[in-house]
Amino acid sequence: MKIIELKESITASNDEDARVLREELKQNHTLLINLMASPGAGKTTFLGKTIKDVGDKIKIGIIEADIDSDVDAKKLAELGVEAVQAHTDGMCHMDAGMTRKALEELNYQNNDLVFLENVGNLICPAEFDTGAGRNVMILSVPEGDDKPLKYPLMFTKSDVLIITKIDTISVFDFDFDKCEQRAKKLNPNIQIFKVSAKTGEGMEEWEKWLSAQVKQWV
Amino acid sequence: MKIIELKESITASNDEDARVLREELKQNHTLLINLMASPGAGKTTFLGKTIKDVGDKIKIGIIEADIDSDVDAKKLAELGVEAVQAHTDGMCHMDAGMTRKALEELNYQNNDLVFLENVGNLICPAEFDTGAGRNVMILSVPEGDDKPLKYPLMFTKSDVLIITKIDTISVFDFDFDKCEQRAKKLNPNIQIFKVSAKTGEGMEEWEKWLSAQVKQWV
Fold first, then answer.
1. Which of A14, A78, A101, B86 has a Cα-to-Cα distance from A173 of 20 to 30 A?
2. What's the complex ipTM?
3. Mutation target vs A (from B8, B150, B163; most A CBs, 10 A cutoff)
4. Whole domain around residue B57: which residue ranges?
């Protein structure tokens, strides 16, 4: 596991950088998935469970983007995947230039699939194209079903919404139907999976989708 | 309840604007508390419970800062307090100029205490002084005890850490001692309260602290 220190790219043309990076990734047969969520939504636990379930069939690499610490990358590296911890120098999101540097540290060409676990933030990461082939967001049950109303851009930009921690539904007021309606009003094409990384419930459907995306990309 | 549309201040001197605003608030005997947290940490529920408990003794005004929607301001206005919904035009935080505009809409001079419920974000709001007299952050049990490691600036800048949703402890792995040690390592003076706005547990201690701050400020 490596730790790298990143600074925001100087270039103003992030969209163009992202487009070029996405094209390169496609030519190298590597699908990059940008995983976004609030702090504490359960991104790392969800990734850990996904790696355990499909890591023997798909060669996975991990970029952990955080302002500080390396606890997440360490956890995932223990599962036997290659993991890079990227420190964002206080930045609240990853851009395409930062993502490129982290991918180079990872030697991404060796992987069919790379997860970029973006900085925990439901706002800023949605504004910056990282070059990923797919954007996936996590919303956890404890956060509440009203989040599409308050953070609309994140739901608009995501191809997939994963509703996590569904095993805790008994102690929270969370209306799945309302949440789905609100998300689909913003983004009619958004795919929705309901999972618990703790109990494994719902993970199979997500992993089927994931495997199909990797095949399609390669 | 009013809704206002805000844009980021043009001035580069946010620190100076914040200092001047804080001084004005002091002269007007109004304590402004900047409440920060992740999306879904329970800021609005916590504020609602606080208003119910002490709203007859302290004259409270509310600024709800959100990228979009007015669900939070509506909820709190129903409790009989004056509430302004501030839309941040996509911005991930409030600065001193935006806060001043919202305070003017609220006619803040009528209140002993104004809560600014900042945009749900554990990163960017910590970087901008709003002019508040006290910074209070919320961390909810479902988010996990490792957050001080990953979002250190927020813990450094906060005078108070409220650990919320303690009624859900049975379904989460959350080590209160570890969390407190990590927070105090970053900020030895941080005051910590453990509460459940749902059951009311721990609210009294927080409200005692709050009442003392208002008296001291006025």
1. B86
2. 0.90
3. B150
4. 2-217
